[in-house]
Amino acid sequence: ACDAEDVGEESSAMQVRRAVARPQTVSLAGGNASDSLGACETVATTCYIFPCGPSYGPTECIDFECVCKPGFCVDRTGACTSTAKAVEAEILACPSGPAGPGPCAFPPGQAGARLGIASSGGGSRAQSFFAGVVRALTELDLFKEIELMSVVSGSSWTAAPLIFSDHSLEQLLGPPTQPSELSESFLEMSSSEILATAATAFLPRLLEAIRYSVPMEMLWVWVVGQVHLAPFGLNGASAYMAQSREDVQRIKAANPALREATFLTPHPGRPSLLVQGTLAAPEGFRGSPNSSVSLQMSPGYVGAPYYPEGSRVTYQPALGDHGTTTRVVGGGFVETFAFGGTGPTSAVPAGGGPSEVGAPLVPFALQDMIGVSSFAPGAELTDYLFTECADPRETYWPVTSPELPGPGDAVPYAVTDGGNIDNAGLIMHLQRGTQKVIWVANSYKGLNTTYPWEDICAGQPESFARFNPVEAGVIDEVLDKYGYGALPGITTDAQFLAHNQVFKQEEILPLACSIWAAKNDGKPPVVRFTSKVIANSFWGIAGGNTVDILLVYLEDSKNFTSMLPKSTQKQIEKGKWGKFANWPFYKTTFQNAPLEPVAYTLPQANLLAAYGEYTVKQYAKVFKDFVA
After folding, report:
1. CA-to-CA distance for 573 and 229, rounded, in angstroms?
2. Which of 60, 179, 384, 609 has the most CB atoms at less than 10 Å from its CB?
3. Distance (Å, rounded) from C-alpha 287 to C-alpha 315?
4. Cβ within 8 Å of residue 511, ≥6 positions away
């Protein structure tokens, strides 16, 4: 991710959402949360030749005119923005101080889940493997038992349609497969709607975004919406989000200005969704391991729980031409439909509650949520193509408390990939006290086969002093949970993993040896372990509780490849010259260079999903016992 320097003049109407929304001085002077701007212009531009571009906000083409959707009017920049000046929204307080985390009001359905699942980032690799894991859990009749799903980056591309679409699970994930039937011709067939998006070309959408003059910091978000949400009718910038239809009714009753607004809600009966981004730094400043925090997004609420280390954070200037700034960050959540506006106009009730806040100019939409979470490939891509800063921007304000009363004003922040702060998405579960977690680690590399595994694993626990998990090839999202996140190359200028230790360091050796043992036997690694969570003041974790984890670790399996049809095996054996180059650790970007920057071929996505499915089914009894 690039530094959060000021992006300068507004290049188009869509950039208005990056600025502080409406000053609080105009929000509720003698009014109430139902106030709106009154009569307004509703025609943004024409659509005689080109469709209504995203730069004009929530519009639709009617009689060759780009007309603002209900609840939006053309503002001074020429964009369609919300007519509401202020809204009434629930605020949930989640403070912490020098003595540790205080009582936290997590969003409904998120605290104390019996069973959760966490799936890490990794672009289309994570999307495909995770889709296969979920397909197998569905086949085993276990998916329905999952209460809370946390996802990061590419895994959100599977999760968003899975949770929001009303299509059947088989339509979304595809029918069951067997390794022996995965011929080249079979893999060319499209039977999963989610995997079809993994194979949808990004480049044409990028060119379309450029033609529409989409601002750089909105480019990735818009393209992700077109590729991963449009096939399900879930894209666009005009729909708010809420956790349930009942919540929508409550929100509209409290805010008449939103009575015509469109809301997306999760499909009933599917897990609560939690998507992680990174709240990097205010504009003009840069993120760091000590100041950047987890931005936790869900259909119902967005925010950051607790205050890192129970205190304010200090941001360093991005360009060195001004001083530092110290701010409050974290402390709780606001309802998602109100995220992006200015903060409360009066003190938030102790513990949170209904409050009047400045309305966002445009909704924080589903495409914003998954576009922010998955921005790492977007950063690499836009840096490569345009050499210009392109981090998404969102207006953010903290939930202050008597311990940390401010500053709590709303300012534009650079927000970026959730993998920059915790690529596993596991720590969000530990904050909430989830009892059991299926942890899907979508590895970007394999274990080091030249490492002296036999010697190290045979000599444990005494050999722990000689064990070097970095040299052994253990991936970052596991390393950081055991205290290795601060090592050079693990924490970098863009990857902030230094504060992620949640388990005792010596426990990594038996886990790593179990992963190696499975790989050495030709099996896909699936390891169950129980650990006592240690205190972590940066994340607001008190520690002392025990968590039961079932780790699904993406690693090569000789058993799986040996069961494939010979023609498919030959393509894998060809390495970089075959159809499945880099198997199973497909590249996040330019797997299919030079013409396709992000997408996989359909056979690549289908084969990796089938491997995820196979992995779970090979351990069917282990999964059933874990879920029981």
Report:
1. 34
2. 609
3. 7
4. 478, 527, 529, 551
For 154, the token pair is 């590419």
**CA dist list (Å): 435 to 115, 317, 423, 532:** 6, 41, 20, 11
* Distance of alpha carbon 623 from alpha carbon 628, whole angstroms: 8
Which of 386, 396, 389, 363 has the alpha carbon at shortest distance from 375? 389
Helix intervals (H) in 347-413: 366-373, 375-386
Q: What averages of pLDDT result for each successive group of 10 residues across the chain (628 residues)?
A: 39 37 29 44 82 82 89 83 92 88 92 98 97 98 98 98 98 98 97 97 86 80 94 92 98 95 96 97 92 97 96 89 90 97 84 92 95 85 58 92 88 94 98 98 98 96 95 97 92 88 98 98 98 97 97 98 98 97 96 91 98 98 98
Closest by CA position to 377, among listed 206, 584, 134: 206
d(CA 473, CA 470): 5
CB under 8 Å to 488, separation ≥6 — which residues?
none
d(CA 352, CA 561): 54
What pTM, to 2 d.p., does this model score?
0.92
